[in-house]
Design brief:
1907 residues, alpha+beta, three-stranded antiparallel sheet, flat, disordered N terminus
Length: 1907
């Protein structure tokens, strides 16, 4: 103990020395002892001495002067770096702290001890951005609830609505927190309420921590103070801040580790952080320590420069004004108008003039609120926690600090303290955020903290009550927006007093306000908080003030002259701002106004909303006319008002009239929303086209699913409310005036429109009528229940298109606030979906695009629920309406309900809520009836600018009116009282039912005097005949009433004016002043058009008669309408008749007439009367003109058709004659028989069509034809394995995949083994390569001339618009079928395969044939084309050979030990043939049982390929002394001489040769075309070798006893006649021959047991021999099929051997089928069997003398490879994801950002990772070259998508994992559970095996080696 005490004393003594130094090494060793001593001293009851001692030690160890100063200035650094640089000192300090905390023990033991006392009730794991977490809506109470993966998987969430998500801002795990989630969802670890069984913490365990930690944290704070330098004027100083943070990394990490020790340590930390006394003692800066003083000064400066005051400084706010622009940014006082908040920054000073005045006005409004000043400006820190947060903000939320502060949250006491601190700093956070250059990162970090604090209702309520949270938030938001206000230009530009936010400012453009708004929305979701807000009038006023900043923002002015130069994209910012800052808080508030008791809240909101609106109208000087050519889509105040009204009526049973303003206000309220609806029509009519695309973007966003229920729906609802309360005539005329189509509504056939161009009239009229239909039939807020709304929305979306589940969720507008109750994916959504739609499972067409699972409407939905009005309202693109109608038409055709082109069906509506009954008065007002009458008349008379759509809407309105008429037969005269108006002369009453039958005889119209008709007729008399002609150019305008029976000229505009003035009871003079001047400059005043004169039109029609005539017109027959009730009186009793529900215009008219008859007997009678008078449908004169037009049209069409036919015929004949002449010139051979020399039969040449020039002909040497081919390197063959069990993708550390058992690996080992012991050149003939990186050749079957191809490539090279392939690499697409290709394989001139003269069997003996074969092989280059004379053909053959070589990498071509040896090329070439044959075999399923022609039909190019290979193979002659043919067919005399030459390596023994390779070598060495008998001869000879190999292999596999048994049985039969064809005899001979060598001797006893425990029966022996030979027979049969065009027979699997051997001519023809088949009977030995076998065995024996082991290994060949497969994937995607997304890369040992895994071999790679880049190739590209020779199939772990790399291109293939609704989830955005789709995976595997990625997938792009 003494030693320790001495050491401690030394330490204390040391602390006086002025220069801090690192404690001496001796002392370092004694840290533990010192700590133990101090702990003991402190444990005594009187521990003052110990405490002082400890303080002194800490003072010395943790002296804050060292590190940062050291980092900053050179001299001090030199002084301080006693111990290895500035870092060493901190290390030392940390070591000391750890020692002291542990009190002398080991730090790790200490940690473990503390952890034992952790009452872990909460998980609280903190994560940063990009972490994968889970959210379960079933378990969550707060919508922000999230769980870490571990807690999620440990809990039980089966069947819950959960998803996985990638955290954007970071978060923390809520497991165990019952405020945020239900306890049922807690995981196993956090379910136990743990307080009970955790023992109490022993006092001395954490005693040292309580002493040490305050000093440590203070030290940290001092560092932070020291390091902070106020950034200079505008220079961002992030560099310096980051430097400081880097230095502090270890300290903060140390604190973070402490928090992870669990609850016990957290509560100590909480004490330390919140203890005010500690803070006061340490930081007051009053001690004699200079260093502490300095740090305190820096702290005060930092406070000041942040525009905050330290209350002790007693600054008077007023004094600050003068220094507004000075360098130390002054405190933002409010006493005077110092300009807006932002103006204190020097950067804003340019625009001070305008906005300062505005700032003053705004400021005055705010300053009444006394709280502000303190909220914004005063900060007093009383504890470490507060100052730590201050610096965290100052340093812009460094991730480490944020994590530390959040890690402490599980401590309840800390949570409250921290939340209060956070709120206290809220204003400061906002200021820092605004100035920040990294506002995005900072926003995320802020939300990361705030969401943890404010999601908890209890906490939010507490802070609201104690810290004025709501006041703070609203004030801070208001302030934030005030910095970017500009003057509004809406309405009255000069005198407007309204200010709006400027959407171009960074604050809005970058969404900087997002964190604050999201916090606000978050706290409003808590009922207790929202109630306080709704009760606090002051807050509501402030909030409406805030909302009004957005009212009218982003104003659009229509460009009338030229196109706008710069399309501003500010509208994104504007829509986002309104949705986030206004609408979402509104939905939050609305969610708490659901019951009757909350009426008061609604009244409050509505009251202040109306006040704000009134202020707004005053500020923009609004009277009654909106300014023309202006529109803003942003009216949040209107929408607040509308939504609260709707809620009041729907949920709170409020009386609507009690919350509505007076008529004048209603008139004002309707103007702007109506202006938006008219502007929508204008935008769609292309009237705003000069404003660029962005205006269309706005119109689309306004109705888009995420915005519509906060934008267009409230607007339309508000208009419905206004319409239901205002005078209907006034409302209707306002609509037509806004839509600028008033002038069109005249009976005259011509008019002039003063405000609209003629080409826009039709679409604007359609717009106006459609708007009226929507207004009158939409019931979203007028009485539909939530479920009905959901159903209607869903039906509308499904009718437009089939939809996936996720797109439906996305398209159906849900309440933006997640707490609103309609949760997406909730029960009601699923139940409604299953009621209205059928699920179509995903379809897989190979080669087609991958389909997703879709929902499609049920038949009864089309039948009864298809609602065109809803569809029109919800379509973003106009084409969707058309799409819905097309689908509807198709449904009616299919179900046989209606054959023609139907009209949109009329749908019954939900009944109106009683409060809105007034809306239906619109349908029963004379103004509308006059418009409908006029339009029907105009349509009947074929006036211009009307369309079927107009008629459809007119009929829809009439039908709506009939459906909603109140009184059956009203007393019509009753309604005439009241002031008379001009439209009373049209109709007597206002009920549509009675007005329909009212006949109108004459109508006065105004026409221009210049009209020729006017001049002809002198006075306008009322006689009918003179008026028949006067129908061309009339113009209706206002007239006084005259008492003839003539309906007056009717003016909507004047009517509306009159109404307006009646309602606003002002003196007439005032009204005149207000209204008149405004009108004159915008509209031509009623009478001012040039010289108008009045004319009277004879009409004599009623609406009913017009409808009947329309029926005639539409059906094209006179008198087509016959009242149905005359035949069937039943119709009147049960009116719902299905035959009327679907159909076209005719059906609609019939339906309306039926309804009119039903409503009144008078109508019924009148209809019958009209039908009796057979009237011609339209005046005759007009008819002729119209008919003439249609007749002309028909005739013209007919003539055009005839002309076209004639032209086509001519063209065809020309083409034919051209082809004939071309053929004559090109190919004399086709007609004239060739001169044939000897007795050869006639050869027909193969004829090819060139797909480029269209000519046909043979391929010649001068002008060769070629096949379009795609060459690609392939390693598919190498992936065959010999075990049946498929390999699985590894999903645990234990499962690994080793490539040892793949075909490629086995062949590699074999070749290198041979190369070790035998002569290189001979080794390269004994095997095939190309298992990996072999070249596969495929063709689409089209041919072209090679010169045509060259010019085609030239044109592609010059064509700039290339997609996906590189012409420089020779890539192109087949000109005919567009299949991808990269070379042309020349067709060898000569015969057709089919009738080949060489095919006839010959009678020559096998010996003669063998000789011929040998001679032919010996003749080098005996080729029809001599190589010396370079022809075009031979050049092409050479170039294609070059292409084939370049297709694969060098490492897959060079296997020779001497690089560049010709043997290499030789090996490569016959291996290409082998690769293509083997692959074809695999495509056929691995055997030839199915037989038939080649799977690709005509598409095989093996024949052409063989010619090219043979030509090149024959350039290399094999040394004739070693031609394997000799060894196979001749006995060598001097056997012993071979053993003599020891020094050079021997050649490969024949029995080690690969027989299939020998076959290809023999055939390719022969001159082409080959004769069939030569082929058969070669096959027979090779079969003898193969069979011998099989016997040898069997003998090696048998054990000793079996061997001797076989040897014995065979020896007995040796002398029978057919001994050479008996396998027993041969086997026994082989065994006896090989026994002479050491082959069998080496075996140990244990090994033989291993080889084959089963005794071999003769059946198993026969089966083994057949299986051994089958692969060779299959390849040979395929080859024969391609060379000689013979079909392959099909057979059962058991008989494959016998069928193939007879097909190859191995089986003697006389062979009887009765016997059980014996493979040996196929043998045909060219020389005595026993002699040749003993010769072959001798070679083996001489090798095994030295290398018995290897000799044996080489004999056992694995011949049975299974088909290649991709790795098997697990059922659930999550298993893959959880294992791989955190797995570290084996190369760079980091967790990759984009991990991927190869589906062929299971290798884990970094996609795009620069870490694993090698020579500019990223890892995936490299792997695709190594694993697949350029083809890679990768599963991207984070996206669930498969990506294909093919050479230099790549494509996204799609996903093989689908969710429960059959959809992909690319990038895991939805995070729903995904399951393997076996069909898709099969398609992928199929494309891989058949090498068709290039053909099937269309979207390829270059990857530039960057994947």
């Amino acid at each position: 103990m003494a030693a320790a005490a001495a050491a401690a004393a030394a330490a204390v003594g040391g602390s006086q020395s002025p220069q801090p130094e690192v404690p001496a090494p001796g002392l370092a060793l004694d840290k533990a002892a010192t700590a133990a001593h101090l702990k003991a001293a402190l444990s005594r009851p009187d521990n003052r001495a110990g405490a002082e001692e400890l303080q002194a030690l800490l003072e010395r160890v943790l002296s804050a002067e060292r590190p940062l100063a050291a980092a900053a200035d050179g001299e001090e650094a030199a002084a301080a770096s006693g111990g290895g640089g500035p870092g060493a000192a901190e290390e030392e300090a940390l070591e000391w702290c750890k020692c002291l905390l542990a009190g002398g023990g080991g730090y790790d033991e200490f940690c473990a001890a503390v952890r034992a006392y952790d009452p872990a009730a909460l998980c609280g794991l903190v994560w940063t951005a990009n972490f994968v977490a889970y959210r379960c809506r079933t378990c969550g109470i707060s919508p922000c609830m999230s769980l870490c993966a571990e807690c999620f998987h440990q809990g039980d969430h089966t069947g819950h609505d959960f998803n996985m998500f990638r955290s954007q801002a970071g978060g923390a795990c809520d497991c165990g927190d019952s405020n945020v989630m239900r306890e049922s969802g807690f995981c196993k670890r956090h379910q136990i309420k743990s307080s009970s069984n955790i023992p109490c913490v022993p006092k001395d365990l954490l005693m040292m921590s309580e002493f040490v930690l305050p000093r440590f944290i203070f030290c940290l704070i001092q560092y932070l103070r020291e390091g902070y330098n106020e950034p200079a004027a505008d220079v961002p100083s992030e560099k310096d801040l980051n430097k400081v943070l880097q230095l502090l990394e270890p300290q903060i990490s140390f604190l973070e580790d402490l928090t992870k020790m669990g609850g016990a340590m957290r509560s100590v930390l909480t004490q330390v952080l919140t203890n005010q006394q500690n803070y006061k003692d340490l930081t007051s800066g009053l001690g004699e320590n200079a260093c502490a003083k300095k740090s305190h000064e820096k702290y005060l400066i930092a406070l000041k420069s942040s525009g905050l005051t330290y209350p002790e400084d007693k600054l008077v706010y007023g004094i600050q004004e003068s220094s507004a622009g000075t360098s130390t940014l002054a405190v933002q006082g409010f006493a005077g108008a110092t300009g807006t908040l932002g103006q204190l920054d020097s950067s804003d000073e340019e625009d001070q003039d305008g906005s300062q005045g505005l700032g003053k006005r705004k400021r005055v409004k705010l300053s009444s609120n006394t709280k502000d000043q303190s909220i914004m400006d005063v900060l007093k820190h009383k504890s470490f926690l507060e100052e730590l947060l201050f610096w965290t903000i100052k340093y812009e939320f460094p991730q480490k600090m944020v994590t530390f502060l959040l890690n402490m949250l599980p401590d309840q006491e800390y949570k409250v303290a921290f939340t209060k601190t956070f709120v206290q700093h809220y204003a400061f956070i906002m200021k820092t955020l605004k100035k920040s250059h990294e506002s995005d990162t900072m926003s995320n970090r802020i939300v990361h903290i705030s969401v943890q604090l404010f999601s908890n209702e209890e906490l939010a309520r507490q802070v609201t009550e104690e810290c004025q949270l709501l006041d703070i938030m609203v004030t801070v938001l208001l302030y934030m927006m005030e910095s970017c206000l500009i003057k509004s230009e809406l309405q009255d530009e000069e005198n407007s007093l309204h200010v709006v936010v400027n959407c171009g400012e960074a604050l809005l453009k970058n969404n900087t306000y997002w964190p604050l708004v999201s916090d606000f929305i978050n706290i409003l979701s808590h009922q207790s908080v929202a109630k306080r807000f709704l009760e606090d009038h002051g807050l509501l006023v402030t909030w409406m003030n805030f909302v009004s900043f957005f009212q009218g923002m982003n104003l659009n002015k229509r460009e009338l002259n030229e196109h706008v130069e710069f399309e501003s994209q500010t509208y994104y910012a504007a829509f986002a701002a309104e949705l986030e800052a206004c609408a979402q808080p509104m939905w939050g508030l609305l969610s708490h106004c659901k019951v009757r008791e909350t009426q008061e809240y609604t009244r409050n909101v509505v009251r202040y909303c109306l006040e704000a609106l009134q202020d707004w109208f005053d500020a923009i000087n609004f009277v009654d006319e909106p300014a023309p050519n202006q529109v803003t889509f942003h009216l949040p105040l209107h929408r607040y008002y509308a939504m609260f009204l709707s809620k009041a009526v729907k949920c709170q049973e409020l009386d609507l009239d009690s919350v509505l303003p007076d008529q004048e206000m209603l008139m004002k309220l309707m103007i702007h929303p109506l202006q938006i609806q008219a502007s929508l029509a204008e935008i769609h009519s292309n009237m705003w086209v000069r404003n660029g695309l962005q205006i269309k973007g706005q119109a689309m966003t306004y109705v888009q699913s995420h915005f519509c229920n906060s934008m267009i729906d409230p607007d339309i609802y508000l208009l419905q409310v206004c319409a239901s309360r205002l005078d209907p005539d006034y409302f209707i005329s306002s609509v037509f005036e806004r839509f600028k189509v008033v002038d069109l509504l005249t009976m005259a056939s011509q008019h002039q429109n003063t405000v609209l161009d003629a080409e826009h009239e039709r679409s604007m009229l359609e717009g106006a009528l459609t708007f009226l239909v929507i207004l009158l039939s939409l019931r979203l807020h007028l009485g539909m229940s939530d479920d009905e709304i959901l159903r209607a929305e869903m039906v509308a979306q499904l009718c437009m298109n089939d939809r996936t589940h996720s797109s439906l969720l996305d398209l159906i507008p849900e309440n933006p606030n997640p707490k609103s109750g309609i949760i997406p994916g909730s029960y009601s959504f699923e139940s409604v979906l299953s009621a209205v739609a059928d699920f179509k499972a995903p379809v897989f067409e190979p080669g087609g695009s991958m389909q997703q699972g879709m929902y499609t409407p049920k038949a009864e939905v089309w039948d009864h629920e298809f609602d065109p009005v809803m569809v029109i309202l919800r379509t973003v693109y106009r084409r969707d309406v058309q799409s819905a109608m097309d689908r509807y038409t198709a449904f009616l055709k299919q179900s046989g309900k209606f054959p023609g082109n139907p009209w949109p069906p009329y749908k019954k509506r939900t009944p109106l809520h009683p409060s809105y009954k007034g809306l239906m008065r619109l349908l029963h007002c004379k103004t509308l009836h006059i418009v409908l009458f006029t339009l029907l008349y105009k349509i009947l008379m074929d006036h211009q600018n009307l369309s079927e759509h107009v008629l459809c809407m007119v009929l829809y309105l009439i039908e709506l009116g009939l459906e909603n008429s109140d009184e059956e037969e009203s007393d019509e005269e009753a309604s005439v009282c009241g002031p008379e108006r001009c439209h009373d002369s049209w109709f007597p009453g206002s009920n549509l039912v009675s007005n329909m039958r009212h006949f109108i005889n004459y109508v006065r119209v105004r026409v221009p005097e210049t009209a020729p008709e006017v001049k002809k007729d002198s006075p306008a008399s009322t006689s009918s005949d003179s008026l028949g002609s006067l129908q061309s150019s009339r113009r209706p305008k206002v007239l006084q009433r005259e008492n003839s029976g003539t309906a007056q000229v009717f003016s909507l505009v004047a009517e509306r004016r009159k109404k307006f003035q009646e309602i606003i009871n002002r003196s007439s003079s005032e009204a005149n002043q207000v209204v008149r001047p405004k009108t004159s400059n915008k509209w031509s005043a009623p009478g001012s058009a040039p010289q108008l004169t009045t004319a009277i039109l004879e009409i004599k029609e009623s609406i009913l008669s017009l409808l009947i005539k329309l029926h005639h017109k539409l059906s094209g027959k006179q008198n087509s309408y016959y009242p149905p009730w005359l035949d069937d009186i039943e119709i009147l009793i049960q009116p719902e008749i299905p035959k009327y529900s679907h159909g076209d215009g005719i059906t609609a008219v019939e339906r309306i007439l039926l309804k009119a008859a039903l409503q009144s007997k008078m109508n019924k009678r009148i209809i019958e009367e009209i039908c009796r008078k057979v009237t011609p449908p339209v005046p005759p004169k007009k008819v002729t003109a119209a008919e003439k037009k249609t007749l002309d049209k028909e005739e013209r069409r007919q003539k055009a058709r005839e002309r076209q036919q004639k032209l086509l015929a001519e063209f065809a004949s020309r083409q034919k004659s051209f082809m004939e002449t071309a053929m004559d010139v090109d190919s004399p051979e086709s007609d004239i028989p060739m001169e044939i020399t000897t007795a050869e039969p006639q050869v027909s040449e193969a004829i090819y069509d060139c797909v480029i020039c269209g000519q046909s002909g043979p391929s010649s040497e001068d002008r060769p034809t070629g096949l379009v081919v795609l060459l690609q390197a392939s390693s598919v063959l190498g992936q065959c394995r010999d075990n049946i069990e498929p390999k699985k993708l590894p999903i645990t550390e234990e499962e690994q995949i080793y490539p040892w058992d793949t075909c490629a690996a086995v062949h590699d080992v074999r070749l290198s083994l041979l190369q070790r012991y035998f002569k290189d050149s001979s080794c390269l003939l004994a095997v095939s390569i190309g298992w990996e990186g072999g070249v596969y050749v495929q063709t689409c079957g089209h041919t072209l001339h090679i010169d045509c191809h060259k010019s085609y490539m030239e044109s592609l090279r010059n064509d700039q618009v290339l997609q996906g392939f590189s012409v420089d690499k020779g890539e192109f697409t087949c000109p005919l079928c567009r299949q991808f290709a990269n070379s042309v394989l020349p067709c060898y001139p000569g015969s057709n395969v089919e009738n080949n003269p060489w095919q006839r069997p010959s009678s020559k003996s096998i010996q003669d044939l063998i000789k011929e074969v040998e001679e032919l092989q010996g003749r080098p280059g005996a080729f029809p084309v001599s190589i010396s004379s370079e022809t075009n053909l031979s050049k092409e053959m050479e170039s294609v050979m070059k292409d084939i070589k370049n297709t694969t990498q060098k490492k897959y071509r060079d296997y020779s030990k001497t690089p560049g040896s010709p043997d290499n090329d030789f090996l490569f070439m016959y291996s290409v043939a082998r690769t293509n044959l083997e692959l074809e075999l695999i495509h056929r399923g691995g055997n030839l049982c199915s037989g038939g022609a080649s799977t690709a039909g005509k598409r095989s190019c093996l024949n052409q390929l063989f010619h090219v290979l043979a030509l090149h193979m024959r350039l290399y002659s094999i040394d004739s002394e070693y031609n394997p043919w000799r060894k196979l067919t001749q006995l060598v005399e001097e056997m012993n001489s071979q053993l003599g030459n020891e020094e050079q390596q021997p050649e490969v023994p024949v029995l080690y040769h690969d027989v299939t390779s020998l076959l290809l070598i023999q055939i390719l060495m022969m001159p082409q075309p080959l004769r069939k008998d030569h082929f058969t001869c070669i096959v027979k000879v090779l079969f003898t070798l193969l069979y011998t190999q099989a016997l040898v292999a069997v003998s090696v596999k048998c054990n000793e006893e079996d061997r001797s048994a076989w040897k014995h049985t065979g020896a007995l039969k040796k002398n029978i006649c057919d001994a050479e064809k008996s396998y027993e005899v041969l086997l026994s001979f082989v065994i006896s021959e090989l026994s002479k060598g050491k082959l069998y001797h080496e075996e140990g006893t244990q090994e033989c047991a291993m080889v084959s425990p089963v005794a071999w029966s003769s059946e198993s022996m026969e089966k083994y021999l057949q299986d051994f030979c089958l692969p060779f027979l299959r390849i040979t049969s395929l080859l024969q099929h391609h060379l000689f065009g013979e079909d392959l027979p099909s057979c059962q699997e058991e008989e494959e051997f016998s069928v193939l051997s007879s097909c190859l001519g191995l089986l003697p023809t006389f062979y009887q089928t009765e016997h059980p088949f014996i493979s040996a009977s196929c043998l045909d030995w060219p020389v005595p069997a026993f002699d040749i076998i003993s010769q072959w065995c001798f070679e083996i024996n001489s090798f095994t003398e030295r290398h018995a082991e290897q000799g044996k290994a080489l004999l056992i060949q694995e011949s049975r490879w299974k088909l290649p497969h991709l790795l098997q994937l697990p059922e659930n995607y999550n298993t893959i994801f959880q294992y791989y997304h955190r797995k570290t890369c084996s190369v760079c040992t980091k967790v990759p950002k984009d991990p991927a895994v190869c589906l062929v071999c299971g290798t884990f790679v970094c996609l795009k990772g620069l870490c694993c880049k090698q020579q500019s190739y990223c890892e995936c590209v490299l792997h695709s070259q190594n694993c697949g020779a350029g083809t890679g199939i990768f599963l991207l772990i984070n996206a669930s998508v498969i990506i294909i790399i093919r050479g230099h291109r790549f494509c996204l293939w799609g996903s093989v994992y689908l969710d429960a609704h059959g959809e992909e989830d690319r990038d895991l955005r939805r995070g729903k559970p995904l399951y393997i789709c076996k069909e898709r995976y099969k398609v992928l595997e199929q494309q891989w095996i058949s090498h068709t990625f290039d053909h099937i997938n269309k979207r390829w792009g270059p990857h530039y080696n960057g994947l």
